[in-house]
Amino acid sequence: MVSAHALLFSLDYQHVQIPFEITLWIMLASLAKIGFHLYNKMPTVVPESCLLIFVGLIMGGLIYSLNDKSPPVMDSDIFFLYLLPPIVLEAGYFMPSRPFFENIGTILLYAVVGTMWNAFGIGLSLYGICQVKYFNLQDVSLLHNLWFGSLIAAVDPVAVLSVFEEIHVNEKLHILVFGESLLNDAVTVVLYKLFKSFCEMPSIKLVDILAAIGKFFLVGIGGIFIGLLFGVFAAFTTRFTKTIRVIEPLFVFLYSYLSYLTAELFHLSGIVAIITCAMSMKRYVEANISQKSHTTIKYFMKMWSSVSDTLIFIFLGVSTIGNNHEWNWPYICFTIIFCLIWRALGVLVLTFFVNKCHVNTVTRKDQFIIAYGGLRGAICFSLVFLLPEFSRKKLFIAATTVVILFTVFVQGMTIRPLVDLLDVTRRRETSPTVSEQILIRFFDHLLAGIEDISGHWGQYYWKDKLEYFNSRYLQKILLREYDQPKSSIVLLYEKLERKHAIELAEAGQLIHTPSSTSLLRSRETAVSIQSPASTNRDIMDNIQEILTTNLYKIRRVAPAYNRYTLPGEMGTAEQAKEILIRRHKSLRLSFSQSDSDQSQKKLHPGLPCEWQGLEHLGHLPLLF
Amino acid sequence: MGSRSTLLRDEELEEIKKETGFSHSQITRLYSRFTSLDKGENGTLSREDFQRIPELAINPLGDRIINAFFPEGEDQVNFRGFMRTLAHFRPIEDNEKSKDVNGPEPLNSRSNKLHFAFRLYDLDKDDKISRDELLQVLRMMVGVNISDEQLGSIADRTIQEADQDGDSAISFTEFVKVLEKVDVEQKMSIRFLH
């Protein structure tokens, strides 16, 4: 009987083991994510990354207790080759390029100088600690400490992103911390490899140090070069995909991944390469591919990066359990303290220099967020596992694990309340009156407008040159049809008209709901010009609330990048559409006046007459 | 960057420098910006040239800002007028504060900056911001979700807070008083590149 059963139902786990387990992990990650988002309250108190690590800890504990050996440690190769690229690609592709290049100087300063400052500072101070006899750490040499410093100094984009979603920071700040965390990869890689080679060399000469500095520039610039190369290839390839639309998204992913792998092949910075590739190909690819491919790319990128992100944090939790650690608590505690101190010092000093060159200063609150938001994450973790086996490796692993857990849990959870606290104290000092608030917002819009007119962006000269080069040469080679932008204005017009109708209907509903009108009536009896003495607190708050939610945001304040929504679905795009529709009328008037002069201009099919002259607005969608 | 029909002459540059206080290189850079905006290549900008700037199209105050460049009743602005308006946004340098009081007030003084902003509100140029003018600006700055009544009460509140002589309108002195806690120099200055 048993043998008959064996013939009918046979179990062959070995056959499917690897894909099965991978799929199960991914399934676990995604289910965990659904779980968090179902509880609406959780993400506001505890950032998602913490919850994911927690899940990982539980899983690790389970595996450990079941198998009675250490659970699978996250293999560095898996991390660097499979898990990290999607996240960085998504970040680079959706990076709002205008604020990025506006602040590129500051970002590079923080990324390069800041990381080196942190690395050397932490390394040297830890070496000082090691000299103390009491801690039993004397065999940890200076080089090892510096090596450890270089890998623990790196601020991690994955962790930063996941926490910054919770706190709403303005665009400039977001781009600063985010850009810094992406670009410091180059510095980290160079320092890491530098110290690795120093440890293996019998003696270190000045020549070696100079070579290292040269290597740093090579890594960064080489990465950029490879990224640009693949970006151009990708743009060129999409020029010919008109007849096979279905595989268009594939090219984007293939070329980006190739650029990453090629850079890693030559020991250059893969992250810089993939970001450059994404940013350079974006403009041409989006003009060449179909609308549906466009949506597909966006969704797939978000999906992959989301999965990667979740998996990384879970694995981090899993790898914490086990026998890999040597818990030398003095060393660990001092590491945490030094990380915080050196980061704070670095930010203070660098911001001092930055503020000298800019009118829009980085405020105290911003500095605090930059310093406190320097979270360490999976990159440090993987790098520490890559260290060759030597006597004290487990010490470093333990220290890294604790630092990461500390930054993600403690800093991640407390950053939001602290930011709110700072805001509240600010608000208590000066509560702006309604008139002040309106006037201030008026000034902000005015300033933004004048800046746009005077062409004041930091690198306008280069941008202008690049635009010229682009329109003369690049567009002809890389774009399928040269007059592509015209079709995008038609698309924009259609989209606007469609949404306009819906918005108007909704706005009409809002005005006429019974609750709001009854509120108005009661408010109107309370507020009247004849009795200025009745400054009712509720009315004031009501008006303040109305203003804060409804005043149009200026460009700098609204964040342009969001993890979970596609660009173009958020507030700024809606706001811009509203403004465009409103000014539609005035634009139409001004064009009808000069209509007689422009009768020779050729008309575009599909556009109503008032939009004819506006082909220059064709690249407006890129602004969103 | 291609041939331009009119180049900036030296004496014109000197005059602009004296009038606005910009440096030589700033004026040259702004001139190249002026010419890149001037699609008709006739040495003046029309309203369409301004409206071609895409970011300005989605600025709520775009129309008012553009109008501020054009002198009364005209449709074209030349480079001098362009620079004169932009000069209001030059940051106030420290050494200028101690300049001679007898000379004409520089265009970027605090008072002139405020005057410029005031003129953006006050369309009929009667030196008062009436409730209607305030309502118009508010309507531009606010989304579609606010009804007219709500907007009206916000405008009333604004005037109530600012008005001191009881005429239900905001005069220039009252305007200045509202902004005394605001750092106008910073809010209305752009650091033009050298």
Please describe what this structure looks like.
- The complex is a heterodimer of chains A (624) and B (194).
- Chain A has 624 residues and is mainly alpha-helical.
- Among the domains of chain A are: 76-422, Na+/H+ antiporter like fold; 435-492, no CATH class.
- Helices cover 74% and strands 0% of the residues of chain A.
- Chain A has helices spanning 2-8, 13-38, 42-45, 48-67, 76-93, 97-102, 104-130, 142-152, 157-164, 171-200, 206-238, 248-265, 270-288, 291-320, 329-357, 364-372, 378-386, 393-429, 434-453, 460-478, 484-512, 514-526, 537-550, 571-593.
- The N and C termini of chain A lie far apart (69 Å).
- In chain A, 37% of the residues are buried.
- The model of chain A is unreliable at 482-489, 512-535 and 594-624 (pLDDT under 50).
- Chain B has 194 residues and is mainly α.
- Chain B has 2 domains: 13-88, Recoverin, domain 1 (Orthogonal Bundle); 107-187, Recoverin, domain 1 (Orthogonal Bundle).
- In chain B, the strands form 2 sheets. A two-stranded antiparallel ribbon of chain B has the order 1-2. In chain B, strands 3-4 form a two-stranded antiparallel sheet.
- In chain B, helix 9 crosses helix 10.
- Chain B is globular.
- Chain B starts with 9 loop residues before the first helix and ends in a 7-residue tail after the last helix.
- The model of chain B is unreliable at 1-5 (pLDDT under 50).
- At the A-B interface, helix 19, helix 20, helix 21, helix 22 and helix 23 of A face helix 2, helix 3, helix 4, helix 5 and helix 9 of B.
- Chain B: This is Calcineurin like EF-hand protein 1.
- Chain B: It comes from Oryctolagus cuniculus (Rabbit).
- Chain B: Residues 25-60, 109-144, 150-185 form the EF-hand domain.
- Chain B: One of its GO terms (biological process) is regulation of intracellular pH.
- Chain B: InterPro entries: Calcineurin_B_homologous, EF-hand-dom_pair, EF_Hand_1_Ca_BS, EF_hand_dom.
